[in-house]
């Protein structure tokens, strides 16, 4: 809060061009974002990379810097300043942050494909090691069952031994 | 006896309820108010020309781009000039991004960009693709 109060009155007094000369020199000097109370100038050249790590006070300072900048003729803004202005207003942070980190969709597709392949392999390998089906499931056995059922007159009213029956009886094979 | 008389006078004294059908319901009609594209354009051009702060401009843009149409270049120009008036570069870039979302195909977007090229050059607006291409 202290920093905020300090930063507010000082900022409009500082001419934007001088602020940017200072910003550029601090970039070349290798100094990262200067603390807002000492010098309320933060280089705008790489706001995208460091925005998330800035404190609220520093973000406020950047907002104010950009506000001052955008009052100038837009043709005189550098591409970095334009990018910074766009990023701060509409970049993918805060409520516009992407729900999933990049690379999520390929990961999901790959995972699902892997699971389907594993399940298929498991299914056929288990079937390959299974015992043969029981002998009563063969077509011959089922036809013999039909003959035996007719011999015994099984289900004579509606079923296999009834008059005009044309169903398959016990045969389940095609 | 007395009570019955009193009751009858009271009953008679009550004014006859003249029931009028309440006018809660609007009479049904098949005519729907339909705004033409031209009047829509005129409405938003006027809106953006009179918008005084960033909130108003962005509110107008939200409303304007919420319809099932692509705003006319006149509206876009008014919106971009409104963004210039309230000194917000990012909103001006965002307007072009909004057009890209609304148009049906790349040719239409390109047509908008060509149509508005003088405006972009006059105000020094780079579209988002230009900002992030390098």
UniProtKB/TrEMBL annotation, chain A:
InterPro entries: Cyt_c_oxidase_su4_fam, Cyt_c_oxidase_su4_sf
One Pfam family it belongs to: COX4
UniProt-listed Gene3D superfamilies: Cytochrome c oxidase subunit IV
Cell compartment(s), UniProt: Mitochondrion inner membrane
Record pathway: Energy metabolism; oxidative phosphorylation
A GO BP entry: mitochondrial electron transport, cytochrome c to oxygen
GO cellular component: mitochondrial inner membrane; respiratory chain complex IV
The entry's keywords: Membrane, Mitochondrion, Mitochondrion inner membrane, Oxidoreductase, Transit peptide, Transmembrane, Transmembrane helix
Membrane topology field: Single-pass membrane protein
GO MF term list: oxidoreductase activity
Entry-linked PANTHER family: CYTOCHROME C OXIDASE SUBUNIT 4, CYTOCHROME C OXIDASE SUBUNIT IV
Family: Belongs to the cytochrome c oxidase IV family.
Protein name: Cytochrome c oxidase subunit IV-domain-containing protein
From TrEMBL, chain B:
Species: Dichomitus squalens
InterPro entries per the UniProt record, alphabetical: Cyt_c_oxidase_su5A/6 (IPR003204), Cyt_c_oxidase_su5A/6_sf (IPR036545)
PANTHER family listed in its UniProt record: CYTOCHROME C OXIDASE POLYPEPTIDE (PTHR14200), CYTOCHROME C OXIDASE SUBUNIT 5A, MITOCHONDRIAL (PTHR14200:SF11)
Main location: mitochondrion
Record's function text: Component of the cytochrome c oxidase, the last enzyme in the mitochondrial electron transport chain which drives oxidative phosphorylation. The respiratory chain contains 3 multisubunit complexes succinate dehydrogenase (complex II, CII), ubiquinol-cytochrome c oxidoreductase (cytochrome b-c1 complex, complex III, CIII) and cytochrome c oxidase (complex IV, CIV), that cooperate to transfer electrons derived from NADH and succinate to molecular oxygen, creating an electrochemical gradient over the inner membrane that drives transmembrane transport and the ATP synthase.
Membrane topology: Peripheral membrane protein
Keyword field: Heme, Iron, Membrane, Metal-binding, Mitochondrion, Mitochondrion inner membrane, Transit peptide
Family: Belongs to the cytochrome c oxidase subunit 5A family.
Biological processes, Gene Ontology terms: mitochondrial electron transport, cytochrome c to oxygen
Pathway assignment: Energy metabolism; oxidative phosphorylation
Oligomer and partners: Component of the cytochrome c oxidase (complex IV, CIV), a multisubunit enzyme composed of a catalytic core of 3 subunits and several supernumerary subunits.
GO cellular component, as recorded: mitochondrial inner membrane; respiratory chain complex IV
The keyword Coiled coil is annotated on this UniProt entry: no
Domain of life: Eukaryota
GO molecular function, one term: metal ion binding
Localization of this protein: Mitochondrion inner membrane
Designated name of the protein: Cytochrome c oxidase subunit 6, mitochondrial
């Amino acid at each position: 809060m202290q920093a905020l109060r300090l930063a507010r009155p000082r900022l409009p007094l500082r001419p934007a061009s001088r602020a940017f000369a200072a910003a550029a020199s601090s970039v070349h000097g290798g100094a990262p974002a200067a603390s807002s109370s000492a010098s309320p100038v933060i280089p705008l050249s790489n706001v995208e990379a460091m925005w998330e790590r800035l404190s609220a006070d520093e973000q406020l300072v950047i907002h104010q810097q950009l506000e001052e900048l955008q009052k100038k003729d837009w043709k005189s803004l550098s591409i970095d300043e334009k990018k910074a202005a766009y990023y701060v207003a509409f970049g993918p942070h805060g409520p516009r942050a992407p729900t999933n980190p990049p690379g999520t969709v390929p990961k999901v597709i790959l995972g699902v494909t892997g699971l389907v392949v594993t399940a298929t392999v498991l299914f056929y390998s288990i079937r390959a090691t299974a015992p043969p089906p029981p002998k009563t499931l063969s077509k011959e056995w089922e036809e013999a069952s039909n003959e035996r059922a007719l011999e015994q007159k099984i289900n004579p009213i509606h079923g296999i031994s009834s008059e005009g029956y044309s169903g398959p009886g016990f045969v389940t094979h095609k | 006896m007395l009570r019955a008389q009193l009751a009858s006078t009271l009953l008679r004294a009550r004014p006859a309820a003249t029931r009028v059908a309440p006018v809660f319901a609007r009479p049904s009609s098949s005519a729907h108010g339909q705004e033409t594209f031209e009047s829509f354009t005129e409405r938003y051009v006027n809106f953006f020309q009179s918008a005084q702060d960033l909130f108003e401009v962005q509110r107008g843009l939200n409303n304007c781009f919420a319809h099932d149409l692509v705003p006319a270049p006149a509206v876009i120009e008014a919106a971009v000039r409104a963004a210039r008036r309230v000194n917000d570069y990012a909103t001006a870039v965002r307007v072009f991004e909004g057009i890209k979302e609304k148009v049906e195909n790349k040719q239409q977007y390109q047509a908008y960009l060509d149509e508005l090229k003088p405006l972009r050059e006059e105000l020094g607006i780079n579209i988002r693709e230009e900002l992030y291409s390098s």
